[in-house]
Structures are given as C-alpha cells and as structure tokens.
Design goal:
The chain is of the alpha+beta class and about 425 residues long. About 45% of the residues lie in helices and about 25% in strands. This is General secretion pathway protein L.
Length: about 425
C-alpha cells in the first residue's frame, strides 16, 4: 500500500471513528426504526436492503456456508467433489443476496486465533493498526512477518488519557492456504473473523492487500442522484431568483408607469388650479370693477335736468371724473349722496362761471362702486327722478322746459375707453 493510500485510509478511519462516537448514528437508527414501523410489512420486505453477512467455515472434509447469526447450513461441499461442482453449489447458495449487499466472512476457530486486550494512549487512535504493528514482537510470541493480525477499538472506557483495544493474530502459514483455496472456489472473503456462537466476534484478520475491491454501483447511483438533486436544487434556487428579479423588474416598471401617470395628473391638477385661479381672478376683477352703464344711469337719474356733462372718465381703478355745467354746481354733492354706484363725490379745483351759458362750470371726482345684486330694490329706478323732481329749482327754471342730462359724443368715447 502506498503512502498516499495509507494517509487516505487513516483519514477515513478517523472519520469513521468520529461518526461512530457521535450521537447521530443512534438517532438515525431510532428514527429509521420509527419510520419503518409505519410502512406495511410487504413494502418493508420489498425495499429491505443493506449488508447481508455469510459465514464460511472450514471443516475436516470440506466447506460449510451459513448466514451470520443463524445455525442453518445453506450449502456444504466436500473436498472429494469436483471443483466445478463445489463452485456451482457455493455460487447458487450466495445468489440469494444482491452482490452489492453480499458480504462473506471466513470464520476461524477460536483456538487458531490469539486475542489480547491492549491499553493504548489516545494519540494512537488515528493510526491504530500501524502503532500496534510496531509492537507485535512484544505483544505476540510470533514475528511480525509470520502472522496476519487485526486490531479494533473496544467500546469500554479505559484509564484517563487511554483507551482499550483488542489485538487478534493468526499464523500466515495457516490462513494463507485457506484464502487461496477459497479463491479457487470463486469466493473472496471480505473479512477473516472468529466465531462467537453463531455470530461474528467483530475482529478482522484479513490482510489489507487481499481485501476485495468492490464497486458499489448503488453507491455510485446514489452519488449521481445526490449530484442531480444538488443541481436541481441549484436550478430551482436560480429559477426562484430569476422569477423574483423578473417580478421585481415588473413591479419597478409598474411603479415608474404609475409615477409618470402621477406626474401627469399632478401637472393637470396644477394647470387646473392655475386656470381656476386665473378664472377666479378675472371673475373677482369683473365683480370688483364698476360697470360704465350703471354709473351713467345713476348720474342720469341723480343729476338735475338743467345740468350738462361735457366730459366723463372712468379708469380701471374705479376713479370717476366728470366735467360739466350746472346752474348751482354746489348742490350736486347733495344730489349724489346715497348713490349706489358713486361714492365720495368731491370737486376738483374751483367752480367757475361760464359767461356764454351763464351757468357754473365744475369738475368733480368720485369713486365708482360695485352694487350688491341682493340689495338692489325694485323701486331704485324711480328714486332718481323723484330726487331730481324734489330738488329745488332756480328761479328761471320754472319757465324753462325740463331737459335730460345728455352726455356728448366725446364723453361717451371717454367712457368706453375707461371701460
């Protein structure tokens, strides 16, 4: 065995010991037993598997084959039978088990095996066979090259820092002929053990160089299935991540689309608000700005009939200005008091007499008011003439026919410009 093989074997033995020393094997056996109890007996028998050990023993006149742990003999061949007959009988008896599960142990009589109990340091566990092999000359009455030996760790505890092991040895001169004879019969034992009743003691005297090379196809199949499961698991995880990313991208696209819609709605709402504000501003301006016709109508009704207007202006700020002639211009302030559309009348400059007409020339300023629609009485139209009629007349007005206060063309143009 090469150094690399020995190192790998040491590592495998260390892993096996660590596995056997953990609580997992016991738990898995208990769990498997509980699960197996739930399976019908017929199914349990159909799916039953695992290693099946057979014990082959050398008798005085031949070989005997039985199942490990059972006393019933499966096959027995005598030395006097032909070689082909013996091979066929043993092969037929062993064919009941799957070759992958079949294990054969060559059982030696206890008198032919030397067994000793050893107490070794814990450090020897990692390379137990090699450590014991260095001490064979002291532990056995044979030389190391004259025997086949096996060593195993016992379950019982030893002193602190030590453990208990068992050494089993048998002469090469006795074991090698048996192994050669079994090889001629087509039987390759997996272990050389010692009988312990109908069971096996658990020691292994088979030389590592003569151990059969088994190819466990089911283990390979299981390894392949495990690899496929791993790949499928990876594929499922990758598909899940891909679907998750796709869903995330879809959600992002939907959110971006909704954000665009929200921006458009916001812009439309802003435009609507601005339009509503502008329309409201214009409406308020229209309501707050006095109209020309109500002001002209108010002046027409409140000014006396002998009063004439030469100029009339009304700007956007509601400032009202009118110029004209009247026999008694000072009474015009009283005539305009209480007007709905004219407020704060006052003279601008001084009142001057006109030598041509004999009347007083005046220029007045006022504030155009916006009348409230709900307070306009039905008799407002008749209030103006009544006030004008009740106003005192000059002495020469009794012989002069009443005339309205017309607004000349120039004054009308100024009013339209002001509006």
């Amino acid at each position: 065995m090469s150094t690399l093989q020995e190192a790998s074997q040491v590592q495998l033995d260390r892993l096996r010991r660590a596995w056997r020393g953990s609580v997992l094997p016991g738990f898995l056996r208990w769990w498997g037993g509980e699960l197996a109890a739930l399976v019908p007996v017929r199914w349990r028998a159909a799916f039953a598997g695992g290693e099946r050990w057979y014990a082959v023993e050398r008798q005085t006149d031949g070989w005997r084959l039985r199942r490990s742990g059972e006393s019933a003999v499966l096959a027995e061949v005598a030395d006097i039978d032909g070689a082909e007959h013996r091979v066929a009988v043993l092969a037929r008896a062993l064919s009941e088990a799957d070759p992958a599960d079949r294990r054969i142990a060559l059982v030696l009589p206890a008198a032919q095996v030397l067994r000793r109990r050893l107490v070794l340091p814990v450090a020897a566990r990692d390379n137990l066979r090699q450590v014991v092999g260095y001490d064979l000359d002291r532990q056995t009455p044979f030389r190391a090259e004259d025997i086949h030996y096996g060593v195993r760790e016992l379950g019982g505890g030893g002193p602190e820092g030590r453990f208990v092991a068992e050494l089993a040895a048998t002469p090469r001169s006795m074991l090698d002929p048996l192994l050669d004879e079994l090889a001629s019969l087509g039987v390759a034992p997996d272990r050389v053990d010692v009988a312990q009743g109908h069971a096996l003691a658990g020691v292994d005297l088979l030389p590592p160089i003569r151990a059969p090379r088994r190819v466990d196809r089911r283990r390979r199949l299981n390894a392949g299935l495990l690899a496929v499961i791993g790949l499928l698991l990876f594929a499922v995880m990758a598909a899940w991540l891909h679907n998750r990313n796709a869903a995330l991208e879809t959600m992002r696209a939907d959110v971006e689309a909704m954000q665009g819609d929200a921006q458009r709605v916001k812009a439309l709402r802003q435009r609507l608000t601005e339009s509503a504000g502008a329309s409201g501003f214009l409406a308020r301006k229209k309501m707050e700005t006095a109209a020309v016709l109500p002001v002209l109508e108010e002046l027409t009704h409140r000014l006396p009939d002998d009063t004439w207007l030469e100029r009339f202006t009304l700007n956007a700020s509601g400032q009202l200005g009118f110029q004209g002639q009247s026999p008694q211009a000072a009474r015009l302030i009283d005539a305009l008091k209480g007007a709905r559309t004219i407020g704060d009348p006052s003279f601008q400059g001084t009142i001057q007499a006109d030598p041509t007409s004999g009347k007083e020339r005046f220029y007045m300023q006022a504030k155009a008011l916006v009348p409230k629609p709900d307070v306009v009485p039905a008799k407002a139209a008749a209030a103006g003439p009544a006030t004008s009629a009740s106003a005192p007349k000059p002495a020469n007005a009794s012989t002069t026919p009443a005339k309205p206060a017309p607004v000349q063309g120039k004054e009308t143009a100024d009013a339209h410009e002001a509006r």
